[in-house]
Each structure stands twice: as structure tokens, then as C-alpha cells.
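Quick one, C-alpha cells below. Sequence please?
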């Protein structure tokens, strides 16, 4: 690799530039820097290759990942069937995964100005004392929408039993940390729903 840059472009700014989420003036400043800096140019190239690898895995339904709405739009443009749900802190969403859904997208709002969060996921399986718990540290927030965007394979969601899901986010700022949420999802398997329930859980 080339000699390290003394003032490298922040990785989040490179992501935003690559996703065309920067203003014209901000994009020009990034371009001016990386065109004259071999180190940051290599970082941008590595990031581009990593992003394409993540896209390929997600498109094949093999990965649960944090993402951006640009990637979701890219998947839809390739005729991938996407079911999408969005919620703000404190809201409840009735959700499912249909037989044709290839990707399930959940969006967590209320995060304008936040660059990343720690995700705390807890699912209580209905009618049992069993639970599902997962942690996703340092998940990036989509700077264009102000949402945390999570993508999961439709097949993974179809395999779930009825689950009551609570998601809490830890937001880190210069002045300290605070919690965002909770966000509530009420998942029910498609095969257990009648037509009215499926319509209720249609998503967007």
C-alpha cells in the first residue's frame, strides 16, 4: 500500500461519496483530495470492492447486513423482490415474510445526524420462554435518509416462528451515549395468516 495519508478522508465520507449522498461541494472536496492522494484512492477502491461483495451476498440471500437505501433501490432495479418495513422510536409494526420475498428490509428512523449505532435485538418466541438475542455493534446509519437499514434474506424470516421483537439502539456522540427506541416488530409466519392479516402486514 502507498504511504499513509496524514489527513485521510473519513471512511463514512468515502461511503457517502460512493453512494452519491454528498452535496456537490462536498463531493468536489473529496474528489480533489483522493485524486491527489494514492492512499485515499486505494481506500476508496477497497471500499468499492467490499460493497460489491456485500451486494452479491445480499442479492443471493446469504447474509444479514446493515445497508443503505441506495443498495435496496439497486436490488429492486435488478427485479429482486423486497418487502420493506419502517418504524420510528416507540412505534409497533406488524410484519411477515411472503413466499416470494427474496429480501426483507427493516428501517429504524429518528437518527438524523447520527453516523453509527450499536444494535440490540431481542425476540421473544410467542407461547414459549425462549428468546433470540443478537448484537450488531457500530452499524452505519444511512446519511441520506437518517435511518438504520437492515437487510435479511426472505428465507431466514420465513423460517422464524411467531416472534415479538424489540430493537434498541445505542447512539454514541461527542457528549456521551444515549438509547434510541425501542422499535417493536410483531412477526407472524405467512402460512398462519388469513388474507386480511397479510394485507395488514403488506409493508411498502
Amino acid at each position: 500500500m502507498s504511504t499513509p495519508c496524514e489527513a485521510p478522508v473519513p471512511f463514512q465520507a468515502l461511503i457517502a461519496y460512493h453512494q452519491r449522498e454528498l452535496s456537490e461541494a462536498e463531493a468536489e472536496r473529496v474528489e480533489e483530495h483522493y485524486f491527489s492522494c494514492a492512499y485515499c484512492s486505494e481506500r476508496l477502491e477497497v471500499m468499492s470492492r467490499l460493497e460489491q461483495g456485500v451486494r452479491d451476498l445480499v442479492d443471493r440471500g446469504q447474509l444479514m447486513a446493515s445497508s443503505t437505501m441506495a443498495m435496496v433501490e439497486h436490488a429492486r432495479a435488478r427485479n429482486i423482490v423486497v418487502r420493506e418495513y419502517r418504524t420510528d422510536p416507540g412505534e409497533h409494526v406488524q410484519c411477515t415474510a411472503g413466499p416470494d420475498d427474496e429480501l426483507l428490509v427493516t428501517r429504524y428512523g429518528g437518527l438524523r445526524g447520527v453516523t453509527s449505532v450499536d444494535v440490540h435485538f431481542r425476540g421473544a418466541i410467542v407461547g414459549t420462554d425462549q428468546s433470540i438475542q443478537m448484537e450488531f455493534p457500530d452499524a452505519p446509519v444511512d446519511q441520506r435518509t437518517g435511518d438504520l437499514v437492515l437487510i435479511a434474506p426472505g428465507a431466514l424470516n420465513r423460517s422464524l416462528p411467531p416472534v415479538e421483537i424489540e430493537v434498541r439502539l445505542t447512539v454514541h456522540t461527542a457528549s456521551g451515549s444515549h438509547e434510541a427506541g425501542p422499535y417493536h416488530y410483531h412477526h407472524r409466519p405467512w402460512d398462519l395468516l388469513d388474507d386480511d392479516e397479510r394485507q395488514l402486514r403488506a409493508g411498502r
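The first strand starts at residue 65 and ends at 67. The chain has six helices and nine strands.
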